[in-house]
Amino acid sequence: MHRRLYRLQECVLRGVNQLKLSLFLLTVPLFISGCLAPSSQATRFYVLTPLADSSAIHIARSTTRAQPISLEIRSLHLPQYLDRPQIVTRAGPNQLTLAEYDQWGGNLRKNMGRTLVKNLSSLLETPDVAMAPRRPPSTVFRYRLDIEVLAYELNAEGTTTLSVLWRLFQGPRREIIQTRLSRYDSDDSQQHSMNGSAELTMQEVGVKQTNLRDYAAIVAAMSRVLAAFSRDVAQEILWHDNPDSRPEPSVEKTQQPPALQPLRRGE
Q1: Which of the listed residues 37, 110, 183, 260 has the most CB atoms within 10 Å of its CB?
Q2: Alpha-carbon distance 219 to 210, whole Å?
Q3: Where in the chain are the domains?
């Protein structure tokens, strides 16, 4: 009796194992074909757009310069969450979204560096703008720029934001002539404000909604806010190069409060 039960148990286990093996052999080809099959959605790649020579505002033409301007972008730092191929957007204050099929056509930091060099060269009308460590060996730079990017993405409200802390240095001793915290919001970034104060300031630019799914529009907005930052850097260099060209700060007239009248008895 025990032998029959043991044989029956062996037959059942053998059948179960064979069934598992058959299912495995049927599933593996399907799994492999699914992995090797090409994706139905193609990946799109994007790059930042510099200011066109025809559309760049040559603010250098209105300023008299004693000697040519030369500028080195000494450092450009990005947050770690932006240092990836996928375009990053915000789904909320503490949530990021990575676009799997919309990616940068190269390294974002290098793309920003090349775009800044092109923008500043056009705005300052000088070829002597370089990104470290690629610098001409014979060039002695009059100005140096350090950039710390704090935010550079589309937020949950549909606004593309560039928040940047930047420092401008002059001369071989690297004297700090400007330290500023700036923020630029798309889309009216051309209406930026210029503050020549040496204090830490915050700049607010116009706001416009951007389609969350239109990554071409998102990258275009990112190019515009980067162009607005380039204009402020160029203007600050020109103002320092020729202090007489800096506009006088506007002083608003304040109304004097009316004189207090003495109270009479009984009032």
Answers
A1: 183
A2: 10
A3: 55-242
Distance CA 45, CA 29 (A): 32
pLDDT single digits (tens) 119-151: 999 999 999 999 988 776 667 889 999 999 999
Q: What is the DSSP string of the chain?
A: -HHHHHHHHHHHHHHHHHHHHHHHHHHHHHHHHHHHSPPSS--EEE---PPPTTTS--GGGGS--SS---EEEEEEE--GGGSSSEEEEEEETTEEEEEEEEEESS-HHHHHHHHHHHHHHHHHT-S-EEETTB--TT---SEEEEEEEEEEEE-TTS-EEEEEEEEEEETTTTEEEEEEEEEEESS-GGG------SS------------TT-HHHHHHHHHHHHHHHHHHHHHHHHHHHSGGGSPPPP----PPPPPPPPPPTT-
The HSE-up count of residue 218 (CA atoms within 13 Å, CB side) is: 23
Strands 95-104 and 71-77: unpaired
CATH code reported for the domain at 55-242: 3.40.50.10610
Alpha-carbon gap, residue 160 to 154, rounded angstroms: 4
Question: What pLDDT digit, counting tens, does each position of 59-117 carry?
Answer: 655 555 567 899 999 999 999 999 999 999 999 989 999 999 999 999 999 999 999 99
Tokens of 74: 């000494």
CB 69 within 8 A of CB 244: no
